[in-house]
TrEMBL record:
PANTHER family: BIFUNCTIONAL OLIGORIBONUCLEASE AND PAP PHOSPHATASE NRNA. InterPro entries: DDH_dom, DHH_sf, DHHA1_dom, NAD(P)-bd_dom_sf, Oligoribo/pAp-PDE_c-di-AMP_PDE, RCK_N. It comes from Natrinema pellirubrum (strain DSM 15624 / CIP 106293 / JCM 10476 / NCIMB 786 / 157). This is Exopolyphosphatase-like enzyme. GO terms for biological process: potassium ion transport. Residues 154-296 form the DDH domain. Transmembrane segments: none annotated. It holds the Pfam family DHHA1. Residues 355-459 form the DHHA1 domain. One of its GO terms (molecular function) is nucleic acid binding. Residues 5-98 form the RCK N-terminal domain. Gene3D superfamilies: inorganic pyrophosphatase (n-terminal core), NAD(P)-binding Rossmann-like Domain. Signal peptide: none annotated.
Amino acid sequence: MGFRLVLGCGTVCRGVIDCLAERDGRLLVVTDDESVVETMREESIPARDGDPTDPATVASVDPPDVIFVGSDRTDVNRAALEAARDRFPGAAIVAYLGGNATAADRERFDALADRVVGPTSALSEWVLAEAASPSAESAIELRDQLTGIDGRLAVMAHDNPDPDAIASAVALADIAESVGVPADACYFGDISHQENRAMVNLLELDLRNLGPTESLEEYSAFALVDHSRPGVNDQLPTELHVDIVIDHHPPRGPVPGEFVDLRQGAGATSTVLTEYIERFDLGFDSSTATALLYGIRVDTNDFTREVSPADFRAASVLSPHADASVLRQIEQPSLEGDTLETIARAIKNRIQRDSVAVASVGRIGDRDALPQAADQLLAMEGVETTLVFGFNDQMVYVSARSRAADVDLGETLRDAFDRIGSAGGHADMAGAQLEIGILGSADDEAEIESIVSVVEEVITNRFFEAIETRPGVPVGAYTQTSEWLFTQRGEPDGGESA
């Protein structure tokens, strides 16, 4: 990935070069030590004999993505750094200070290099762990992508965003603004969950709620966070050109985007954005830090679900900047009556087979009550997997939870519902959205209730069948009925009935 240029090759830099030679991308070492050049060439490492302090030496070199200045001498490194910065103003430069630096040298290094490594630091370890890591290169690529945008950027969270999506959108908008690109954190739908509303209001997060028919012409570029495909769990056109995608969910199909960072090993997209804020050296605003920390905590269920070392590290970075008192207020909102009623209907209407419980809660006004109902069912004795769904206009919203070791809910919901809607998520937490077009043509309440009854049966049985079917085998039962129900947009063709 990228082109790395090493100027000077002292003893502390040799370990860096050995490791860089094993990584993807181009590498070139320039040093005036002929014996080092010969040794490197014998090891098939591209090396050139030349004075790294002479501007003419680098004049013919292609623009690198990252430059390492690594001689043992401070004066040589300073001169090489000055020549490199003058020749390659857009490159990221890591410079070793050397052992005899004066105050003036330190000031000059700080002014010209993106990162300065002192003589007491282990240069090779630092570079390999930080500057030469894939995440560091991703930060360089993200910066290049952002600075290439001419106009305003829309950072899109998924519909009805959760804390992870909200925090990630706000953080990426902050990063874009830091490099001179105006940006809005945007979403379609509603923020109806009590905790999510409390998060936005208490932290005074700047979000734009887009309407279904709202024009997007004012935006020159689009970024997707916490989801990866336009038109899937958002109301963007499916053919929209996407500039940036940052997500931690496993993709279902090809992911469009000029810059794509899918960190499936991370427990939250907020973890990835925390790392980018560090890489861009922005510092952490208290509101953004609190939002990101809450996003990580929610998506990892307080570090008990699909958590990774990166999540713990991000939390430790964010904690000193987060507002603990605001976090407590966010996490303890009052539970609204509608949510309690939804939970009660889920418990009453549940259908249980072995350790799997499915419940329809009928008409809903707040779709964010569904995951709370699914969590409550999961707390019941003998239940290890739950699915709760409800109806709003012509849409069915589905939320599922599991603590069973042999169940992957993300794949299960995709197998059950991908042909009739959009579905996805993690092994223990997933969701789906299904449109019932035929409801729009229903004439009276009795007809609507009849359609709803059939849809409830279809959803329930497709989920049970997907649970019972081995992974990777498509769900076959109810296919014709369900696909017909979920694709009608008006009067049924040919006089067919549901």
